Structures are given as structure tokens and as C-alpha cells.
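Sample intake sheet
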Amino acid sequence: MVTRLWTLAPWLAALWWGSLSTLGALVVPLLFAHLPSPALAGGMAARLFSAQTWLSTGCGLLLMLLHRPGQAEPGKGRAQAALVFMLLGVLLALLSEFAVAPRIVSRENLKLWHGVGSAMFALQWLCAGVTFWKVTRKLH
């Protein structure tokens, strides 16, 4: 059973990192390039970032469950150090959703909070990338 669950970990990590990459590098820039107004693009981007928060949280929590002490596949040495990056990534996603996004939506010091949100998104992307790398590097 543990072996079957372990096959899920690389897929979860890929979904997490890939969805962040697609949203940040492709989807949101396309919204601002093709929607009629920045306000319309910003509103849609906010909804997509919110959906991304829940996807990130779900992937991160499931990955943490799979990497609990005693759950790791015996003999495979699957990067328990990745737990730190999983936890940090989930925390960054939740902080962005509940601490930063409301300030951006209310246009409170927009330049500052947009910069903070962008930095947190980039850090979450790095955490998801490190998680993906650690989870998949021992597969070969």
C-alpha cells in the first residue's frame, strides 16, 4: 500500500509546481495582454490566484502526509528534508490568500502589497520546485 501511495507523490509535486508555473508565467500575463482593461484582468487574476491557493494547499498537505515519519517507502530515502519546503509553500499560499490578497483587492498601498504578493508567489514557486526535485530525484 505504501508503495502505491508513493507513486502519487511525484504527480502531486508536478501538479503543484506546474500549476504555479503556468499561472504565473502564462495565464496572468495573457489576461493583462488581452482583456479590455487592467481592472478586469486584475479581478480575474485574483480569482485564479485564489483557486491556486487551494490547489497548492491540497497538494502540499497530501505531500506532507505522504512524507510523515514512518510513511516513507523503506530503503528509498525519499527526501524528508522536502517537508520543510512543503510546509513553507503551503504557509506562503495561505498567507497570500488571507493576509496579502485582501489588501490588494481593497487597493490598500497597492504597490507595496502587490510586490509582497509577487515575492511570496515566487517563493512558493521555489518551494514547490524544490519539493518536485526532491520527490523525483530518487526515482531513477
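Comment: Helices lie at 2-6, 8-34, 38-66, 82-105, 110-136. The two ends are 20 Å apart (CA to CA).
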